[in-house]
Amino acid sequence: MRRLNAYALTFRLPIIIWQALFFIGPLIFVVAMSFFVVKNYRMVETFELTSWAKMISRDYVWSAYRYTLVMAGSAAAIASILAFPAAWFLAFRCSARARQVALLLLIVPFFTSYLVRTFSWYTILAEAGVLNGGFALFGLGPFKMLNTPFGTLVGYLTLVLPLVMILQTVTMANIDTRLVQAARNLGCTPARTIWSVILPAGKTGFVIAALFAFILSFGDFVAPFYLGGSNPPTMPILIIDTTKAGQQWPRAAVVAVMMMLTLFSIAFAAIVYSYRKRASR
Amino acid sequence: MSNTKFTLTKRSFLKTGLASVAVSAPFVNRAWAQTTELTMLGWYGTAEPDMVGAFEEANNVKFIPKYYAGGDNMLAALAQNPPGTFDIIHTDAEYAKLLVANDLVLQLDPEDYAFDDLLHDDFKKFAGHWDASGNLYSLITRFGHLGVSYNKETLTAEEAATYDIFWDERLTGKVGHFDWHLPSLGQMSLLMGNASPFDIDAAAWQAVQDKTLSLKPQVGGYFDFGGTFSGLKNGEMLAMVGIGDWVTGILERDGAPVSSVVPKEGGIQWTESYSIAKTSNKADLALKYLDYTMSPEGQVKTAQMLGYPGHAVTKAGRALLNEVDPAEAARSHQVDGDPQDPITLINEGRIKYRDIPVQQTLEDWNDFWSEYKNA
What does residue B280 show for φ and ψ, rounded to 5 degrees? Predict the structure, then answer.
């Protein structure tokens, strides 16, 4: 019989307690709440499928769900692609000192509130803003960027791009550079080196970076609301709308559970994929 | 071991005692003049210094605001907080009747208020403020009108004088909604010719939905307070559905080229009132504040409120506003003889009082609103 290792438990217990208190507990409560009902603006603890039946039968819920999936997926893909050249440069072409300074600078945006950073886009993306002012010099525009899906994407990238860049840089900095050199010595083009050496070697890091970008974008309320004009709404906006109207917290909980199930599924699939060994030939 | 001895002489006793009194005097004084706290549940701005500062000073009161946006949130705050949390409740008239129906507010004595001084007869027995037995529960305090809000550099007042302007091709992608179904759908109902915009049968409700959906290609976004202000101010939105002078008035004061007009199809009136929570243990002081809000000075403050402007409801209040702030009185048309005088608009039958849906549920209207946003 295995003996309980007190030493190991001492280190594991805090994280177990933390997760139980602040993740599993609230998660169970949200799931339970989705079966409650609201009467006279007060939640009644019961077990009814009313909220589930109501929400999953509504077309607007599913269209918001599809839109949120597409937008968060796009944000993850665009952030991964945009971040890659910069991360590659920092990992392989910079001195260690320069890389440290660059990583510090990538952390700096997080010192400012995300809401403030989002609002600052107003002056840049507005029709009378900085970008359209630049386009006007070439006789172009004005282009409508605020209150569009493009505006939402800009907001998502504001949130996730620095993080993806940091994760990709750290990932590539840990790849054995001898592998890259060997590929080049054996005649690989730069593109082939990236495709056949760097991407497989850093697969886990790249997938985790994209996964973080997806998770943060999928649950973000600020960008689609303030830069996308809620037009159309995303799932987090649907949660706000649902609670505003009639204090329907159980229905909001249904939306929240739908979101969590989606994130669990995607995170699980991404982790399995990223750690899967390549099939031997 | 210390050799120090503790001896209390008459001289040291007196010195210590006097010093103690001197040091504690400020705290004693503060305790004697203990400030009373009044908690107000209200729309943003109603418990800010520009509104309550003079009353606080005169009565040694400190207002503790709890702000909400939308009547549903107000009812939820009342349901979810322990009894006695709130003293004064500031609410829209259509939700005041729910406060009465749920037995949440104190009965008021009509004899305490000068109803003869109210600017319009409708205000004297305002729906929802009185119960079926003729008992008063809520006191009307200010009102405003919702119509077409527009950018003056794009549209003239004449062009904006119909809800049809929202479908104008110059406004494609530039029409914004205040993100609340009641005012926007109420305006669509007026456009469809419904005399009672919130009391419509199934066929009329379907027609309102169809008409609203046809506006979707024009819509640039759905906004909260902040988004509405910035959208109009930076020109991203050239017209807004569901708002009125309570938004454009603030921007106009800052020089933005925006304005609001009550169109030919009519406008919707928002009406705000004060009630006293039944569980308040400071009802006397709360009643005193209600008296203050109905005084000419209180009415001027309510018309000038920095949070968002409104119209005075008493003749004495309007007269004092014209005397002390003629510019604001003129800007908001609270001047006798002005064709957009809000009282004249009511007398001409162009104003309908905002209400909750009568033949449908709030949930029906809200469901459609979500569908519309996702269309």
Answer: -70, 140
